[in-house]
């Protein structure tokens, strides 16, 4: 065996005698059917190993080539020896585990059928490398139906929108029956048009937030239209309280502009007609959207404006978030109690109901849903602020695993032996000049049975490095999360600012640290 751990050529040795060759051929023939079932047995350790076992594999790596001596017409190096090093590796009694140990020094027992029951692949015909991991499935949209993109931002319509559209169609249709009874069944078609036009106004409201966010170079993941309006998912916080205030204020401002436009449209169309009723309805609905969003509590736009003001006064964004979140919770309680009372008293228009009926129950249910949304949104805003406060603890340098550089033709068993000796937990494939070219995937290592690892080169288990898979060791917090999100992978090469290899960053390690940070934020 040479220094690299590969078996030496035996072409210069004397050929075995005829009797020994005959027994060997009979042994092979007797075990043909058993070999068919061997992969199923070998695959069992894969499910039981959560991570590659470098402690026991290294010990067994030294004598693995001797398992294949019967395959190379060398009956003097037979199978019974494979049981001895395996037992030594499990107990840890064999300290000389170098892959360069000489098999010629071993005794030469006669091959037996029992020794051939689990033949290992021969070096002359190595077992094929494990199949590559399946390509990652595309992410399924959790935001509903994608209706298109505006300014590069996807527009999602949640399934709950169809429920509220049906509700608006039913309620507005009942009003049209009183105002324009001559429409008949066509009133529901007009009501459906009103529901779509109303949510188009909500979309314009959210686009105002999106345009300003993009102007401030804040990434926007998507715009989602849902049961109670819409939301622009901006992935980063504003850098200054002034920008935070403007980002929140443009939404209600544009809703007020739409209110003025529909109010002006009422003077263009004839009153008492379908266009007149639609203009009046859209004017009132946009005014309600503007006023509701200006209420000073998170997660509403008014709450973000309040957060910006407190942030400006105290110099602490966290103080602004806490103040706006608690005001939002108080607002949720006020909506839960106050909205049904205002409806019952007739303060919101119309006549006060004389008894408890279906309308009263509907108003109470609507108030409860609104209160739950505001309360939940305020709590989520507070948790996200606390999470961002803990995110700087996610540092690439502290989460990186120590790695050992190996050449592409290094056997997996030898690479794991070197990693175990160095106390490392990752493998990096380098070229002849020492530059990293690939990262050996942990999942691929687990998928290789231990007895095959001496015959599998690390190049077959590695993922080539792309530009996005090289991350700086100085990354931390949201910058680290954004970098990993831009190029999804299971492992990343971490480098120093000078370009020197620092180690390998596993996505699983980052996820565990992120979960701990979230637990601390609750």
TrEMBL record:
Q: Where in the cell is it found?
A: Membrane
One Gene Ontology term of the molecular function aspect? peptidase activity
List UniProt keywords, sorted A-Z.
Answer: Hydrolase, Membrane, Metal-binding, Metalloprotease, Protease, Transmembrane, Transmembrane helix, Zinc
List, as start-end ranges, the regions of compositional bias called Acidic residues: 66-78
Pro residues bias: start-end ranges: 120-136
GO annotations under biological process?
A: proteolysis
Cofactor(s) the protein requires to work: Zn(2+)
Looking at the record, the residues that make up the Peptidase M50 domain are 193-268, 282-333
**What InterPro entries is this protein classified in?**
CBS_dom_sf, Peptidase_M50
Which CDD domains would you find in this protein's record? S2P-M50_SpoIVFB_CBS (cd06164)
Domain of life, per UniProt, equals Bacteria
Segments passing through the bilayer: 150-172, 192-214, 245-265, 277-298, 319-341, 361-378
Annotated Basic and acidic residues bias: 20-36
Disordered: annotated segments:
1-140
Classify the protein's membrane topology as the record does.
Answer: Multi-pass membrane protein
Any Pfam family matching the protein: Peptidase_M50
Compositionally biased tracts (Low complexity) = 37-52, 88-102
**So what family is this one in?**
Belongs to the peptidase M50B family.
Which protein is depicted? Site-2 protease family protein
- Provide the taxonomic classification: Bacteria, Bacillati, Actinomycetota, Actinomycetes, Kitasatosporales
């Amino acid at each position: 065996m040479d220094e690299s751990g590969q078996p030496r050529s035996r072409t210069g040795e004397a050929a075995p005698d005829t009797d020994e060759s005959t027994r060997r051929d009979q042994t092979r023939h007797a075990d043909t059917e058993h070999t068919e079932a061997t992969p199923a047995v070998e695959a069992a350790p894969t499910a039981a190993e959560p991570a590659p076992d470098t402690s026991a594999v290294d010990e067994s790596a030294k004598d693995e080539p001797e398992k294949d001596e019967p395959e190379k017409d060398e009956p003097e190096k037979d199978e019974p020896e494979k049981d001895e090093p395996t037992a030594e590796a499990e107990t840890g009694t064999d300290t000389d585990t170098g892959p360069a140990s000489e098999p010629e020094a071993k005794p030469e027992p006669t091959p037996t059928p029992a020794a051939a029951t689990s033949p290992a692949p021969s070096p002359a015909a190595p077992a094929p490398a494990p199949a590559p991991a399946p390509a990652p499935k595309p992410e399924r949209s959790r935001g509903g139906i994608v209706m298109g993109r505006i300014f590069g931002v996807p527009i999602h319509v949640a399934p709950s929108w169809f429920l509220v559209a049906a509700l608006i169609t039913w309620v507005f249709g009942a009003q049209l029956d009183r105002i324009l009874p001559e429409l008949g069944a066509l009133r529901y078609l007009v009501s459906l048009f009103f529901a779509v036009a109303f949510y188009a106004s909500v979309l314009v409201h959210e686009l105002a937030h999106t345009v300003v966010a993009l102007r401030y170079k804040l990434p926007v993941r998507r715009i989602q239209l849902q049961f109670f309006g819409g939301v622009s998912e901006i992935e980063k916080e504003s850098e200054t309280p002034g920008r935070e205030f403007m980002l929140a204020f443009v939404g209600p401002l544009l809703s007020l502009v739409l209110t003025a436009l529909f109010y002006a449209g009422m003077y263009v169309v004839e009153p008492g007609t379908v266009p007149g009723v639609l203009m009046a309805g859209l004017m009132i609905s946009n005014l309600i959207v503007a006023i509701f969003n200006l209420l000073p509590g998170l997660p509403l736009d008014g709450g973000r404006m309040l957060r910006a003001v407190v942030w400006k006064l105290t110099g602490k964004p966290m103080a602004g978030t806490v103040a706006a979140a608690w005001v939002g919770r108080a607002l949720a309680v006020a909506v839960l109690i106050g909205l049904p009372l205002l409806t019952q008293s007739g303060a919101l228009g119309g006549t006060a109901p004389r008894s408890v009926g279906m309308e009263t129950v509907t108003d109470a249910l609507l108030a409860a849903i609104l209160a739950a949304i505001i309360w939940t949104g305020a709590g989520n805003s507070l948790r996200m602020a606390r999470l961002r406060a803990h995110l700087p603890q996610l540092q690439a340098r502290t989460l990186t695993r120590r790695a050992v550089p190996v050449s592409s033709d290094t056997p997996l068993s030898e690479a794991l032996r070197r990693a175990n000796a160095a106390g490392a937990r990752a493998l990096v494939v380098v070229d002849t000049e020492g530059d990293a070219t690939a990262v050996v995937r942990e999942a691929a290592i687990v998928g290789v049975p231990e007895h095959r690892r001496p015959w599998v080169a690390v190049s077959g288990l590695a993922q080539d490095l792309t530009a996005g898979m090289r991350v700086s060791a100085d990354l931390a917090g949201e910058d680290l999360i954004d970098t990993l999100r831009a190029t999804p992978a299971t492992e990343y090469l971490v480098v120093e600012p000078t370009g020197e290899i620092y180690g390998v960053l596993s996505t699983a390690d980052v996820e565990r640290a992120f979960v701990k940070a979230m637990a601390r934020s609750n």
